[in-house]
Fold:
Amino acid sequence: MSVGDQGDVIGAEDAAASFEYFVDGSSARLFTMALLLTGRQRVEAEDLLQGVLERAYRRWRRICQNGDPEPYVRQMLVNASVDRWRLLRRRPEEPLPAAGAGPAAGDQASEIADRDLLLRALALLPAGQRAVLVLRYFNDLSEAQTAATLGCSVGSVKSQASRALARLRVIAGPAAGPEPGSGAGRGDGAVRHE
Amino acid sequence: MSDLERRLRAAMIAAAEQPPAGLMQAIRRRHRRHIRRGGTAIATAATAAPHAAPTRQWRTRCGPAMRRAASPQGLPPRDRRPR
Structure:
């Protein structure tokens, strides 16, 4: 990225320009991530992203000094979503309307329905578990990178991911049935994010 | 990667959406509000400081304020107990 090369001291105007450049380039990815983190609540996701980007704008020069700003902003987004979730506390789980039969192969409508079911199940997970899954599967981060972003150990990421997937299987129903050898059968879903 | 993980990844990628229009303007608006709020806080503190200073001086001159004796068993006084 051309903005914020290491060790550069950038002026206020340059900072504003590089921030706009950054927002142009990564807002779509960050917005989708915010949507996934908030359980696809569009208004909340917009508010979360705006708040995070405004805070990033305030300290943009410092953020740019460390190189690529995206991992930092991503971390801010995850932290803000977990904080928000803690404020709102846990919402009672709502049973999802049962998806009749599993998705038939090649059937686009049922594929969309399956995706929708999975995303709704994702929204029911605690914010910490959701953040692990979003970082691992949407941002394609490794376990170590996810741990660094969340500020926890690799073991914690593994256990959270395993519990989250086990829970997804339970919530999303038979369409997301267990696979042999996935190693994610542990945990009962009664997991709280620390 | 298990089947569920693959499907989850596909679902997340398919969930991609365009950011709201006018995002940059919204960020700037928030930023201006933040700065305005900070300015208001400083102005309030500057206005309140001269009023607070004499009170502190008076307290310093007259010694520490009298404290009410604690009620037995550490309970709050009867009139302050929650009903």
